[in-house]
Fold this protein.
Amino acid sequence: MPTPYRSTRSTPDTETVSFGDALLRGLAPDGGLYVPQNPPRISFARIFEGDTLPNMACKVFEGWVGEEIPAPDQERIVRDAFDFPVPIVPLAPTEGGPWSDTFVLELFHGPTLSFKDFGARTMARWMGYFLEQRSERATILVATSGDTGSAVADGFAGQERIRVVLLYSKDKVSRVQEQQLIAARPGVQSLRVAGDFDDCQRIAKEAFVHPAFAGAGLSSANSINVGRLLPQMMYYVLAASRVPAEKPWFCVPSGNLGNLTGGVLAHLSGLPVAGFLAAHNANDFFPRFLSGKDAGFAPTIRTLSNAMDVGAPSNFERLQALLDRPTMQRLIRAERVLDEDTVASMRRVYEATGYVADPHTAVGLEAVRRQRELGALQEPVVVLATAHPAKFPETVHAALGFEPDAPDRLAAIGAQGTAFEEIAPSVEALRPYLVA
Ligand SMILES: *Cc1c(COP(=O)(O)O)cnc(C)c1O
């Protein structure tokens, strides 16, 4: 039997729901986020034996999704979703040296060059499957400040029964990110909002509760959706099966804490892990919380690692529902890395090892360096490389003096043309795009 899902705000008598319902609803009716009632216990030693990522995923999802998706369909979905390489690069192949036992897990070889492709591609196919079963349709509405929008647009494009409406603001995206957002894709409408990112978020929130859009089948694809988190377990599983360590540490460049929550879910179902190091930029709510200092959410601060600019991480509510505070403090450490140190980290790592890290990954590498220097981290560490450096040519140039090589698939984005419309910053302006 697969695990049922409950809301983070549920009481013992609240009903649990199936995976399909949790996926299609996104948010629970009480405003909470879905978490597994009891994480399934998985025997990872068996899964590790020389298996490929899609094969491992089929076995892991048996416990999390189970017969709600029959095995042949699940197999087709994960093969289709995980169709790109996931290299694990040892930073210093020789022993000794400051970066020995440090592995970079490159999660940016998907179509939009960030780890968000894992969640978006899998979730799109899962949603497509359940909508087909139920003869329903959905419109995904996303307000995006960066990588989520392009991953969702690309992952969901061409899925029958699903349309995507993207809201973005010019002020929060880089040049490359904008190119990715406005690439013409079937079933995707990009809307540039004449306002800032907060306007985008406000409009999206209003649309979800607006009576005019009640029949529009609106759904969300951000990391409040449990369907994006489950696929994110898989690269932790892959790395744990490949690195020479009984229990590796994982360093996770973090913002909304969805990536980290994926790792915690894998660990709760039995994945051997020494601990997690959450690496944050100036948006340091989580490091403050773990250190026991006064920790309220704070307004978002803009940084060079813009996909981690989250003042109030929504997955914190999930972590709290999954782990009590002492367990959280034992299992997870956190560091805060400011922009200056992010740039210094890019430079230092490049000089010592020749590795070109994007600004998000550089925050993670700096967190590892500090913990190593304190002597607090002696075991092998896997650092999640969350974006390709070519997504941030300006920052890489400023740090290293050259622009990173852009992979062909980045140049190909937008080759089919671009398509976007500009709208006023009001929910009314959405009407023509949401109501057929
Ligand atoms: C989204 C994102 C993050 C932060 O991930 P969370 O799940 O929000 O913690 C880090 N790096 C990159 C490149 C991202 O796109």
Summary: The chain has four domains: 1-35, 39-83, 86-113+226-405, 114-222+408-436. The chain has a mean pLDDT of 92. The domain at 86-113+226-405 is CATH 3.40.50.1100 (Rossmann fold).
